[in-house]
Amino acid sequence: MSEQSYEAYYVPHNSKLPIFASLGIFLTVFGIGNILNDMSAGTEHSAGMWVLLVGGLVLGFTLFYWFGTVIEENHQKLYSDQMNRSYVWAMGWFIFSEVMFFMAFFGALFYVRFWVVGWLGGEGDRGPSELLWPGFTPEWPMMSNPETDKFVGPAEVIPSLQLPLLNTALLITSSFTVTIAHHAIKEGNRKKLINWLAATIALGLIFLVVQGYEYYHAYADLGLTLASGIYGTTFFMLTGFHGAHVTLGTFMLIVMLGRALKGHFEADDCFGFEAASWYWHFVDVVWVGLFIFVYLLGGGPTGF
């Protein structure tokens, strides 16, 4: 092989970081599972929250050190073009896996809305449900569940043109601000990069605050909870996981802001920022789908 065609591929030394990352993920998921089980059982005091906290700290510190090592290796020019391409493909496949993750939840929503609710009302080939739930009228959202003694339906649903519309405006605006910050890198304008990236982070944080208030309002005033039937379950699973992704994306952008303040990123070397911006655009697109199918078209008495 000629010297011109050979391209060195950097291989790091043995590392214990993947083990710590796996431990952090395990504790985080285990803690979340315990919290959900305790909520179902009505238990107030549980170790699940502490397990979740420990898992989050382990995973957070591991990723912080791991990504710091990758950044330092990049600054030492240890990465070849082939290595950089592998990062691009890795981020692309990661986002694709996230697309499939949300497609599963959207699929569950459509399946329940278009088929299951009708079957419960006696439509189709599943036969009448009169023997099990006499007088049940299929509707979406399901304000009155078949077994009202076990699953009390919500008194109201969240109006789509109030807080959800505000959050939609916030995230769509943030897609523009992060794009402007990206162009600032290409222009070599450090001040513009920092200002517009900070604006994007502020919009993300405001979104999370608004969603937190929306959840409080749903639980405290509307009776819309995880225990209020299939509508509450699909609503909180879809919006809750999206909120978790917005939180992760906000952390990613905060890290990018810290790097920008330290003088990182050049026009030809800024994939860390680009990967974070790709992820941010992805969560924005998912929210648009949520706003349309969960709030706008799925929240009225006639459904979608």
UniProtKB/TrEMBL annotation:
Keyword Chloroplast: no
Record domain Heme-copper oxidase subunit III family profile: where: 5-299
GO molecular function, one term: cytochrome-c oxidase activity
Keyword Transferase tagged: no
GO cellular component annotations of the record: membrane
Subcellular location: Membrane
Mode of membrane association: Multi-pass membrane protein
Record SUPFAM superfamilies: Cytochrome c oxidase subunit III-like (SSF81452)
Membrane-spanning segments: 17-36, 48-67, 87-112, 161-181, 193-213, 233-257, 278-298
Assigned keywords, A-Z: Membrane, Translocase, Transmembrane, Transmembrane helix
Domain of life: Bacteria
InterPro entries per the UniProt record, alphabetical: Cyt_c/ubiquinol_Oxase_su3 (IPR024791), Cyt_c_oxase_su3_dom (IPR033945), Cyt_c_oxidase-like_su3 (IPR000298), Cyt_c_oxidase_su3-like_sf (IPR035973), Cyt_c_oxidase_su3_a-hlx (IPR013833)
Gene3D superfamilies referenced in this protein's UniProt entry, alphabetically: 1.10.287.70, Cytochrome c oxidase, subunit III, four-helix bundle (1.20.120.80)
GO biological processes: aerobic electron transport chain
Pfam entry (one): COX3
E.C. designation(s): 7.1.1.9
Family that this chain belongs to: Belongs to the cytochrome c oxidase subunit 3 family.
Protein known as: cytochrome-c oxidase
Organism: OM182 bacterium MED-G24
